[in-house]
Amino acid sequence: MRIELRVCKHCHEGEHGNEQKTAVTRDMVRCAKQVREYKDLVSLDGVYITMVEEGDPGGAEALPAIVARIENDQVALSDTQLVMEDQDGNMLVYPEPEDILNVLTRNIDQIQEQTRQDVTVELSEQGAKLL
Question: Superkingdom of this entry's organism (predicted)?
Answer without folding.
Answer: Archaea
